[in-house]
Amino acid sequence: MALTPIDDATYATIVELLDAAEDRLVRDGACRGRDANDYLAFRYIAAASGIVHGATFFVANEERVGADIFLSNLPGSKFRRLSHKRKRACIELLAARPDRFFRSFNDTLRTVLQLIMERTRDPEQLNMHGIVLLAAANLPGAVVDIRREIRRRGGSQRRLVVAEDFVEKETIGGSSGQFGALDLPNLLNNDLLA
């Protein structure tokens, strides 16, 4: 799959929406300023993985639905007032390239994946966990890690957790965020393990 090009106007719109949400989160005391982007990354992961949770394989459209839910529920969001065309462009770009908007997206998702793999005992439940499917679609090497973990637990191995052409999605840049004061276990228990 070719790398999704970034449209400057769409990129700017998403960044403005995230900036307004971060300001609101800090103002309302939900998190500190330096943690706001990571907080939103958790919320995006929860929205996107919640849609695919229980599925037998990852479908890219489901991540787009998660991106739509995430953007629609941003605090102080003007997303609902955008034109249908602009909304669709924002949804598609965010779903295709979340690592461009959340500085620690890959690190956060990999950490959450590890916690899910440690806490989920049943290999079949692991096969259908939303975090596992989202990680398989977004993280380099995650499909192999997941298959190895399922094999170690004696679970049946599916050929694919996510379509091969989607796995080829490139990630640009790295992620360097720290979790800071975010309560990772609490966020996981409340949002991602349900």
Give an overview of the whole structure.
60% of the residues lie in helices and 0% in strands. The longest helix has 20 residues, at 8-27. The protein is an all-alpha fold and 194 residues long. The protein has one domain. Helix 2 (36-52) packs across helix 7.
Q: Care to give the gist of this entry?
A:
This protein is 60% helix and 0% strand. The protein has 194 residues and is mainly alpha-helical. It has one domain.
Q: Which features does this protein show?
A:
10 helices, disordered C terminus, globular, mainly alpha, 194 residues
N-to-C series of helices and strands: HHHHHHHHHH
Kindly name the structural category. mainly alpha
What share of residues are in beta strands? under 5%
Helix content: 55-70%
Using only C-alpha atoms, the radius of gyration works out to 16 Å
Poorly predicted regions:
165-187, 189-194
The dominant shape is globular
Our count of domains comes out at 1
The DSSP helix count reads 10
Number of strands: 0
- Report mean pLDDT, rounded to a whole number: 80
| Ends distance | 32 Å
Biggest sheet statistics: none
Draw up the topology in text.
Layout lengths: L7 H20 L8 H17 L7 H13 L11 H13 L8 H15 L3 H6 L1 H9 L3 H11 L11 H4 L16 H9 L2
